[in-house]
């Protein structure tokens, strides 16, 4: 079955870079890519419920610019010599980027959202860049894969997966991590950062469950003593020059506090490697 990947775009260099990254990462897979541009209209505010009517001058001008941008993007993609197993579709929509993505994920049953961590002017705080943090946090029914704007594709030497061993892991939640590890032959480095030296019985059970989920892949366990998960993760990935990070952005309980907004922001803004945000499907 074809994979469906959503590529939100604001026509920036960074958005183009993430598109190329996606094409290379999934070069041997059958994929439908959806290029989504969310546009707004001058003198109107979505937040204030001021909605322009189709046919109004400003609305039609903004819509036309959006559609023209998407057509130019398609022509640029043709020059890329993309794999024949990749198909590209476009969608222009009046909405905020976050709401546009959430609606499109639901409507099209999207498998993965792939986005850059910088945006329109390639300064970090605008449009897609700041929205990538919101995507990782608030798009709960689909994994979000964030590619730093300066990163060109290369197969990761390893994928770091930080965990508390307190999650009831499910194969379907880890499916995209499993698949990326499989198609890139990257080993998974399972990292436990804690001030506790020993695992509890429950954590040992969850560790065994994780081993079953990663059956067929190369993986190893690593333990760091630290009270701060964020610091431990940074030290581990930097010292090993790790090529990718994946984590379960779990609401409530352990990762609700550890991978909370500050952690997601840190990964989103400061990560030097791609980050895959998975979700606990029970949340």
Specify the CATH architecture of the largest domain: 3-Layer(aba) Sandwich
- Tally of domains: 2
User: What kind of sheet is the major sheet?
Assistant: 10 strands, mixed
Order of helices and strands: EHEHEHEHEEHEHEHEHHE
pLDDT < 50 stretches: 119-129, 252-260
What percent strand? 15-25%
Domain UspA: 2-148
Protein name: Nucleotide-binding universal stress UspA family protein
InterPro entries: UspA (IPR006016)
Pfam family, one: Usp
What does this structure look like?
It comes from Ulvibacter antarcticus. The chain is of the alpha/beta class and 283 residues long. The chain folds into two domains: 3-147, Rossmann fold; 159-279, Rossmann fold (3-Layer(aba) Sandwich), CATH 3.40.50.620. It is 39% helix and 22% strand. The protein is built from nine helices and ten strands. It has helices spanning 13-25, 57-78, 97-108, 127-138, 175-184, 201-213, 229-240, 253-258, 261-270, and strands at 3-8, 31-39, 86-94, 112-116, 144-147, 159-162, 188-194, 219-225, 244-249, 275-279. The chain has a ten-stranded mixed β-sheet, with helices on both faces. Helix 3 packs across helix 4 and helix 4 (127-138) crosses helix 9 (261-270). The protein is globular. 37% of the residues are buried. Mean pLDDT is 85; it is low at 119-129 and 252-260.
Structure, briefly:
By secondary structure, this protein is α/β, with parallel strands linked by helices. The protein has 2 domains: 145 residues, Rossmann fold (3-Layer(aba) Sandwich); 121 residues, Rossmann fold (3-Layer(aba) Sandwich), CATH 3.40.50.
């Amino acid at each position: 079955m074809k994979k469906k990947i959503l590529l939100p775009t604001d026509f920036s260099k960074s958005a183009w870079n993430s598109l190329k990254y996606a094409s290379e990462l999934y070069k041997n897979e059958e994929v439908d890519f959806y290029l989504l541009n969310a546009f707004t209209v001058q003198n109107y505010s979505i937040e204030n419920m001021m909605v322009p009517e189709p046919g109004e001058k400003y609305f039609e001008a903004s819509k036309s610019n959006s559609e023209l941008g998407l057509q130019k993007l398609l022509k640029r993609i043709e020059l890329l010599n993309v794999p024949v197993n990749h198909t590209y579709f476009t969608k222009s929509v009046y909405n905020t980027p976050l709401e546009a993505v959430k609606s499109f994920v639901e409507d099209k049953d999207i498998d993965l959202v792939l986005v850059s961590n910088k945006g329109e002017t390639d300064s970090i705080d605008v449009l897609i860049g700041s929205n990538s943090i919101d995507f990782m946090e608030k798009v709960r029914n689909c994994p979000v894969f964030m590619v730093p704007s300066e990163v060109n594709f290369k197969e990761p030497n390893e994928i770091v997966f930080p965990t508390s061993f307190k999650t009831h892991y499910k194969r379907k939640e880890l499916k995209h991590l499993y698949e990326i590890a499989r198609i890139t032959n990257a080993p998974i480095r399972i990292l436990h950062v804690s001030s506790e030296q020993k695992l509890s019985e429950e954590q040992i059970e969850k560790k065994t469950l994780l081993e079953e989920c990663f059956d067929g892949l190369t993986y190893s366990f690593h333990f760091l003593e630290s009270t701060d998960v964020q610091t431990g993760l940074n030290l581990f990935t930097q010292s090993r020059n790790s090529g990718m990070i994946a984590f379960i952005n779990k609401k409530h309980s352990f990762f609700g506090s550890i991978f909370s907004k500050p952690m997601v922001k840190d990964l989103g803004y400061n990560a030097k490697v791609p980050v895959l945000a998975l979700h606990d499907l029970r949340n």
